[in-house]
Amino acid sequence: MSESHLPIHDTGAAVMEASPYGIPSRKLTMWLFLVSDAITFGAILFGYGYLRTASTDWPTPFRFNPSILNVMIMTAVLITSSLTMLGAVDSAKLGDKPKTQRFLWSTILLGVIFAGLHIREWFGMIDEGVGLFQNPWGSPLFGATFFSITGLHLLHVISGVIAIAVISRGFARGSLTAGHVETTGLYWHFVDLVWMFVVPLIYLLNIARS
Amino acid sequence: MAASTKSPNVIARYLPVYFTLLAIAALEFFLAYRHFSPVVLLAMLLALAVCSGTLAVMFFMHLAEERRSLILTLIPAAIFVLVMMNVIWTDSYRLLHLRPFAH
C-alpha cells in the first residue's frame, strides 16, 4: 500500500495510519490496563479458590448481622456510584460543567461511604481475632486471602476516589476534557465489576449457618 | 455548548441496567441463604456474577457501542487467560485427598 493512500493527521507531519479501534489512545490504554487488572484479580480469586478447595477446615464466619448486611449496603452503594459516574460522563460530553461536578462529587461521596463500610468490616473481623495468618475458626490462610483480596479491591476504590477528585478539579478548571472523565469512568465501573465477583466468592460462599 | 439551561436527564437511559444489577445482587443474597450444595451454589452465583459483569461492561462501560475490533482484541484474550487458570483445580483436589490425615 502506497503512503499516499494513508490519511494524514493534522497534528503531525508524519504519515500515520488511522486508529483501528476508533477510540483515543488514552481510552485504549485504560482498556488494556483494565484487562490486565481483571487478570490480576482473576489470578488472586483462583488462588483463593485453590486454597479453599484444598482445605478441610475452611471457616464460614460471615453472619447476616453485621457482615452480610454491611456487604449488601456496600453493593448497593457501589452500583449507585456507577450510575452517578455515568451521569458525570454524559454531562461532561454535553458540556454541562455544574452537573458534571455534582455527579462526580456524588460518586466520590459514595466511594468514601463504601470505603468506610469496608474498613468497618475489617475492624469487626480483626476484633474477632482474624489476622493475616491466624483466626479462631480454622484454616489460618483464611485471613490472608480475605484481607489480600478485599484489600486490593479497597485500594482500587481509594485510588479511584482520588483520581475522580483530581479529574473533577481539572475538568472544572478547563485543563481536562470530557474524554478524561470518560476514561476515569471506565476505571470506576471496573471497580464495580470486580466487586460483583468478590461478594459471591468471598462472602456468600462463607456464610455462617446456624 | 450552553447546556446548563435545560440539560436532559442523563442517567434515565441507564436506569433499566442499574435496577437489573440491583435485582441480580438481591437474587445472589437470597440464593446464598437457601440450602443448596456448595457446588450448586457456586455455579449459580458465578453465573449471576458473569451476567452482572457482562451488563456492566457492555452498557456502563459502553463496550457494546465500540467497534467490534476492540471487543475482539480485548475480550477473547482475557477469557482465554482466565480459562487457562483452571488448570490449578486438579492439584487443589490432589492436596485435599492426598494430604496426611485429610479425613
How would you summarize the topology of this molecule?
The complex is a heterodimer of chains A (210) and B (103).
Chain A: H1 25-54, H2 64-94, H3 97-127, H4 141-173, H5 178-203
Helix pairs in contact in A: 1-4, 1-5, 2-3, 2-5, 3-4, 4-5
Chain B: H1 15-32, H2 38-60, H3 68-84, H4 88-98
Helix pairs in contact in B: 1-2
How does this model look, in words?
- The complex is a heterodimer of chains A (210) and B (103).
- Chain A has 210 residues and is mostly helical.
- Chain A is 72% helix and 0% strand.
- In chain A, α2 packs antiparallel against α3.
- Chain B has 103 residues and is mostly helical.
- Chain B has 2 domains: 1-65; 66-103.
- Helix content of chain B is 67%, strand content 0%.
- Chain B has helices at 15-32, 38-60, 68-84, 88-98.
- In chain B, α1 (15-32) packs antiparallel against α2.
- The relative contact order of chain B is 0.06.
- Chains A and B meet through α1, α2, α3 and α5 of A and α1, α2, α3 and α4 of B.
Short description:
The complex is a heterodimer of chains A (210) and B (103). Chain A is mainly α and 210 residues long.
Gyration radius of chain A, rounded: 21 Å
Question: What is the straight-line distance between the termini of chain B?
Answer: 71 Å
DSSP strand (E) fraction of chain B? under 5%
Number-wise, the strands of chain B total 0
Q: What class would the helix/strand composition of chain B place it in?
A: mainly alpha
CATH-assigned fold name of chain A? Four Helix Bundle (Hemerythrin (Met), subunit A)
% residues in beta strands of chain A: under 5%
The named CATH superfamily of chain A: Cytochrome c oxidase, subunit III, four-helix bundle
Stretches with pLDDT under 50, minimum 5 residues of chain A: none
Helix content of chain A: over 70%
| Straight-line distance between termini of chain A | 71 Å
Using only C-alpha atoms, the radius of gyration of chain B works out to 21 Å
User: SSE order of chain B, as H and E?
Assistant: HHHH
